[in-house]
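User: Let's play a game. I give you a shape written as tokens, and you guess the letters that built it. Ready? Here's round one.
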């Protein structure tokens, strides 16, 4: 049975412009630069550079600024005034832009030899049959960036059957793996950490410390990883001095033999480009945004001229022409939306960073971690005038360059803690004390989390042991048992 009824419903929907702005807010400097370049390539109505021509859109009272595209189902208003915002640019601004472009220097691109190429070069010096040479090439191609081979012989054999049409057994693959393990750097093509370290020790001169180190890794690797040195010393029947010499041989090894061969892209990605620059001169703070690589953008004048030609030539107002003009309108809308989103992104980032600088002014002036105030997202959102979610997106994956180094924006957000005197302090201050105390500890008897909590309470910080463990994990400091040394 059909039934009709009225229903009121309240829904919150984001417009395409809002969605675009949200996505742009989350991007760091490098990704935002790539996003701008992509939009310039995809949208022909969006052009790079500043339009220096005088705008004619506002001349003539506005009658010639609008073009109505008549269609059978209604009229679509296409206003050129919505797109042409080309006011005269002051001469000093033009001169500044030109000087900035002249100061830019091209970054030289240096292509270094990769780990794969280095191993293939050594393989070419070996006299192997063609069959074994192809297997070795495939094995080298499966070595990870850190120098490990993390694939089973059976998987490699299956790939060789399907891709190269070669039928090989596990024993043949193991033999070729042994050949590659003989290459430089020592420890290459190992399947796990123990094999990597043993490969490096086997190339050393067989002194007594090296022999002891091999025995430790071969027979007592589990105890070694858990730093149960007392047990190992008892099992091997050696003195504390012999144990220290063997440990010295092991700690001198490289657990990641392929780490020195970082690719050009990996090196570029590991470099941080700060989104903000905060400088202090004479006790005064200056905030600037890193946007030198973001080009000026404007709406294409050629696309705007298509509107004028459509309006002036009534004879060409065919269906095809109307369809083309609607396509142009869509591209002009997209271009204008993107330009506005870029402007609003810059404004949002600046206001948010200004709020952070105001709240953490003492740190930006002194660089002392102890001067950091407790600050959460709500504190910044109230001062900047944005929602908490907006501040969260702005602070995500963004960095600021200061007189004392480069810091992620997340660094300035910390929990509030109370001292025994009732004073609010930042968790950064507590972490600093913990780090200093751990660095000064006796490595033969590291300080446990409970002892750290006791030390902090003696200094006036009311903190539980589980909170100490959480802060220690955030600082990527291992537990006391793993910090123990001979």
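Assistant: Ready! My guess for every position:
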């Amino acid at each position: 049975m059909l039934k009709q009824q009225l229903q009121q419903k309240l829904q919150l929907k984001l417009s395409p412009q809002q969605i675009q702005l949200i996505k742009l807010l989350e991007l760091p400097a490098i990704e935002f630069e790539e996003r701008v370049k992509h939009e310039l390539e995809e949208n022909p109505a969006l052009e790079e550079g500043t339009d220096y021509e005088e705008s004619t859109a506002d001349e003539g009272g506005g009658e010639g600024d609008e073009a109505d595209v008549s269609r059978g189902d209604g009229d679509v208003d296409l206003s050129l005034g919505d797109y042409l915002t080309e006011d005269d640019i002051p001469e000093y601004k033009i001169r500044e832009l030109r000087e900035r472009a002249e100061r830019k220097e091209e970054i030289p691109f240096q292509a270094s030899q990769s780990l794969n190429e280095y191993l293939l070069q050594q393989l070419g010096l070996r006299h192997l049959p063609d069959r074994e040479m192809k297997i070795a090439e495939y094995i080298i191609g499966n070595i990870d960036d850190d120098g490990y081979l993390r694939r089973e012989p059976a998987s490699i054999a299956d790939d060789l059957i399907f891709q190269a049409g070669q039928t090989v057994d596990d024993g043949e693959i193991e033999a070729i793996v042994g050949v590659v393990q003989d290459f430089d750097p020592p420890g290459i093509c190992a399947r796990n950490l123990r094999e990597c370290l043993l490969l490096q020790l086997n190339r050393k001169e067989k002194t007594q410390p090296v022999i002891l180190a091999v025995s430790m890794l071969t027979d007592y690797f589990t105890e070694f990883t858990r730093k149960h040195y007392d047990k190992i010393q008892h099992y091997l029947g050696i003195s504390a001095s012999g144990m220290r010499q063997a440990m010295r041989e092991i700690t001198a090894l490289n657990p990641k033999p392929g780490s020195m061969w970082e690719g050009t892209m990996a090196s570029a990605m590991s470099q941080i480009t700060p989104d903000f620059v905060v400088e202090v001169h004479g006790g005064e703070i200056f905030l600037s945004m890193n946007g030198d690589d973001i080009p000026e953008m404007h709406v294409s004048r050629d696309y705007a001229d298509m509107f004028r030609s459509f309006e002036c030539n009534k004879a060409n107002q065919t269906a095809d022409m109307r369809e083309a003009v609607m396509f142009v309108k869509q591209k002009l809308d997209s271009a204008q939306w993107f330009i506005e989103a870029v402007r609003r992104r810059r404004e949002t980032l600046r206001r948010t960073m200004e709020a952070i600088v105001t709240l953490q002014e003492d740190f930006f002036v002194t660089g002392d971690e102890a001067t950091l105030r407790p600050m959460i997202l709500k504190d910044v959102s109230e001062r900047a005038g944005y929602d908490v979610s907006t501040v969260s997106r702005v602070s995500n994956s963004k960095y600021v360059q200061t007189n004392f180094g480069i810091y992620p924006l997340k660094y300035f957000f910390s929990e509030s803690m109370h001292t025994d005197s009732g004073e609010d302090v930042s968790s950064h201050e507590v972490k600093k004390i913990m780090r200093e105390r751990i660095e000064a500890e006796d490595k033969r008897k590291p300080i446990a989390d409970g002892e750290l909590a006791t030390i902090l309470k003696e200094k006036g910080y009311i903190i539980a042991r589980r909170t100490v463990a959480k802060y220690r994990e955030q600082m990527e400091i291992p537990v006391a048992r793993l910090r123990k040394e001979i």
